[in-house]
Design a protein that fits this description.
By secondary structure, this protein is an alpha+beta fold. Helices cover 20% and strands 34% of the residues. The strands form five sheets. It has a six-stranded mixed sheet with strand order 10-11-12-9-3-13. Strands 14-17-16-15-18-19 form a six-stranded antiparallel β-barrel. It has a five-stranded antiparallel sheet with strand order 5-6-7-4-8. It has eight helices and 21 strands. A hairpin with a 2-residue loop joins strand 18 (321-326) and strand 19 (329-336). The chain has a domain at 2-216: Gyrase A, domain 2 (2-Layer Sandwich), CATH 3.30.1360. The radius of gyration is 21 Å and the shape is globular. The two termini are 35 Å apart.
Length: 356
Amino acid sequence: MVPFAGWDMPVHYGSQIEEHHAVRRAAGMFDVSHMLAVDVGGPGARDFLRRALANRIDRLQAPGAALYSCLLNDAGGVVDDLIVSFLGAEVFRLVVNAGTAEGDLAWLDALRQRFEAAVSIRPRRDLALLAVQGPQAREHVWRALPETRAASEALAPFHCVEVHCAPAGTVTVSRTGYTGEDGFELAFPAGHAEEVWRRLAAAGVTPCGLGARDTLRLEAGLNLYGQDMDERTSPLEAGLAWTVDLKSGRDFVGREALQRAAPRWQLLGLLLRERGGVLRSHQSVTTERGAGEITSGTFSPTLGRSIALARLPLRVAVGARAAVSVRDKLLDVRVVKPPFVRYGKILVHPEEGDAP
């Protein structure tokens, strides 16, 4: 157990590697109750989020639709990255990161006052959040919570539905996750968390900790707030341009700053070409186009070698060779396009000349 954003969090339940493989091959579960659900409601909720979020909130027309977005500051930096779902009846739910939750609430309240928005901002600390991930995750959830099956069997990715079931009461079932695998994220009254966890475990779902969560998300090429981006980082330099709606005429916080400043960096992947080293955050990367820095790095259990996300000069191309400085040694790496692994398939393979 380790302290994390005011919570005691499990690093692993016995073997981080086994937990990682359980998610890639079957089903694993994570207690992500440290993340905060925030309900934004009222007659002005949609207009408020049009201005507060960088992604296009008007894509969420039908209740249950969800999307990924950044919450930016006026300088175009990333205050947080989040998932927003339209629950219907003028209510949207944002799920934000634990370490930024209090800052997010303060920033949303400041924006509410700035825009004189008729909205309520309600942190849902009464909810537990469990993520069940893996190719067999949905079947395991249906086995543990049978009432969820009929409502969620046809649920498309990035959609959610509310279901009433024993023993959890009203459960919001979202087909979302942070591992590069299929699965559900479940939100329900926190008093039922232990019983739901035990039911999932009895159904064959492997408990997983922070260690496996990090190796899984990095293999999937997913950003971690505070490492791959922060309030000083433009989403255009963090591989998140696809989440920023600059094509429409909609004004949103940070848009003007993003339009003024041309990106200088890009976020790409690195694959270690030799055995024995481990890529870590803050290590320097030397390329033919200039120096960069690793933002996240780890050993990939699926690939059997070290991988990383790195902030590199714009002109560095996928396939280029680079060197990572580790103490007094230079490690040979290849620049690749993330993700490394998605839905159980390896997408980035070693090439001729790489160590076996």
